[in-house]
Amino acid sequence: EGQETGQTEAEGAGTEGSGQAAAGSAESELERQHRMINILNYYNSCILHRTDYTDVAKQLNVDAALLRELVSTTNTIKDDNMITVTVIYPTKEGAEILRAAVLEQLRAAQAQAVETYGAHELVIANEASSVVTDNSLTKWTNTRASEISALINTRKTLDKNLASGASAVPAATTVKIGKRDVVIASVKQGAVGLGAGLLGCAVLIALYLILAGKVLSGRELNRHFGLSKIACVPGKKFGTQKGLDRLAASIDSGYYNHPKRSVCLQVADAGLRAMLRPDAQIALVSDLPEEYVVKLAAEMNKTGKAGAGPRYFAVPCDKQTPESVEALDNCDAAVLVARAEASTYKGTGDVLDTVSLLGREVIGSIVLM
Question: Which of 70, 123, 255, 257 is a plausible cystine mate for 264, CB 3.0–4.6 Å?
């Protein structure tokens, strides 16, 4: 039985810029597009990270943290300068209440956007509500539960057989077993037990990574936070990775800019160079230890043409400091850096909040595998 869910979409948080021009000169197409990207990213960040759900949570009698998880966005800046806001709730009426609260706060944020990025119009293009029945999650959960149950039963059977030393044999039956047969049986049972143990270990590790909120996939990270992909970079030792490391990296193999790390960084640098002005200062922000981000900034600076491209520098955003405030004040844009199995969704969200509070918007992500 699928769960009936109220789903509402607002195709809109679209913008139409009036094009504040520099003194004495018209705004170029590249500058206009850059400004539109900043405006759309600002509204996207407002929806995902700044919406206050306190009042609507009391109205619906639910936890405010849960409501934040029920609101998602699809950012199509390059296509039509639109943000599609999707709200999912167990009832259609609740979904409409939640949608109205999100859009009300979005409209209230326009004044700050105009002050920061120049005059523009915020247009809510279309609002629609529908009731959907989605039983895919139920099927997926039941399938996984059955697999785990089967694994547990198999492990119990193996443990029982290994403890007894043999399968059930009638007490009155006399069986002669040669040394060779005993060795072969022991090897087979040992191999099966080892295989089950490794499988159980793999399941436990995977469950740990999921429950710990670790970032496993660049695709899912960008989808979760509504970020644009600047680069998804394979590790230097991708070809020699084993086990879960290789499996996790393979998830994003079709999402890489290129199988080679160096080429991925070149593509990222070229994309940012085209998006921003040639002498742009780009802050790399992350929940990773500072040395990782400093190393990546050095790689990116070597990748670009000397004196002809953006300059990259690491900004620690695990907490607000005078140095991080000054660094973000002096940068033209910020790029999120995350690492699979090291970064967490909570830590990444805190970084985005910090950058937003310091007056900058994250224009995209570089995910290291």
Answer: 257
